[in-house]
Design goal:
Shape: globular
Strand order of the largest sheet: 2-1-3-4-5
CATH superfamily of the largest domain: P-loop containing nucleotide triphosphate hydrolases
Number of strands: 14
Number of helices: 20
CATH architecture of the largest domain: 3-Layer(aba) Sandwich
CATH class of the largest domain: Alpha Beta
Largest sheet: 5 strands, parallel
Amino acid sequence: MDKSKVKILVVDDEQGLCAGLQEALQREGYRVDASTDPVSAAKLVVERLYNLVISDIKMPALGGMELLDRVRERSRDTLFILMTAYGTVENAVEAMKQGAYDYLPKPIDMKRLRVLVQKALEFQAVMAENNELRLRLQAASAPGLLIGESENMRAVARLIEEVANSDVTVLIEGESGTGKEIAARSIHALSPRRDKPFISVNCAAFAEQLLEAELFGHVKGAFTGAIANKPGRFQLADRGTLFLDEIGDLSPKGQGDLLRVLEDGAFRMVGGSDLIRVNVRIIAATNKNLQTAVADGKFREDLYYRLQIIPIVMPSLRERAEDMPLLIERFFEHFTAKHKRRRKRMSEEAMRVCQSFPWPGNVRQLRNMIERLTITCRESIVELRHLPEFLRDYDRNFPAFTVRPGTPLAEVEKMLIRQTLTHVTKNREEAAKALGISRRTLQYKLKQYGLLEDMAEKPSQPPDA
């Protein structure tokens, strides 16, 4: 993401806070306008397109809710984050029902603000990359999630369509950058709850003692600084969807608290005595192997099975290399239009390197690279020499072998299988796909060529209990 291209508008009638937020976001590299006059801000959102608007709720002459309506009339893609004092949290809840991305309580935690802004912009970028996805979500038909026609992506899309109309709990697993939050928002957008709040919470972002209050809320006087009642994320998500991101980082106490709510459907606010019941659908996500965490005693087995009623595994980019040309084409289309640059395409050699690279950051890493190439490469065809150094180094160091004319085909096949399992992937399912054969055929050939012992595959996770 090129932060210098991101436009943010900050609106707050408190001059010191408004200037402070503008300065903090400008230090991050964003282009930031600020206004202490909500009426003037309303004119700005009509005249200019912003990626993100950060606004106070309570302001004279024109409130944040009214400003939200004007922003959405101008641009449905502009995201809106509300700032709220303790006494106006109920208004924030209503605003989220009307389409606000999230809210921040005052006094503003700058670290939390930066994280929330980045997550909002990442979500916006992924949605913008696939205009077809946005249209399909609005029509409540099968989502494409991330661009791709590979069978594993089709399977994910089919599964999301199947589970969307139910209220069953879903656990989305996958590496960072594979689109887990997009999958969760797609499930919500296709569900009967689509007009109700989608509330997310990053379980790794809060200390153990703060997460309970964040999830369940607190009453006035519950602890130092609790100057008013504050509803938790469960209450904010009532009749909607609660997305628990990074669920694998939940503390043991947090795991126990969550399990009780999932089983009983009720909870008490921190410091409160009243039992509160809400109607919430739970979607959780993690980039950790929870089955291994259960085996190691780091995650509760009962909570694991309560969460993964429907598991969805987002495939890594290396598992869908056949989608690479389409992904790159669509990303170039998006970023050349966004940055007003000439159309670009990959040369065959550059595409070959991209398809062979393992991409630890997955689609997010690929997308960021394509945006960088859109800006830095002046030619219409991106050659190998234009690629980032990490890709050129990978290509230079990638192992190869030569075949002497007259070498028996069986010997060539044996060498190719050995090289694939040694240097491309040790996972036999992935290796079979790369070689264009079934896993059963690969297993047979390993036995045929005496490679079983050399290529012994260690299980990546314990078998299902």
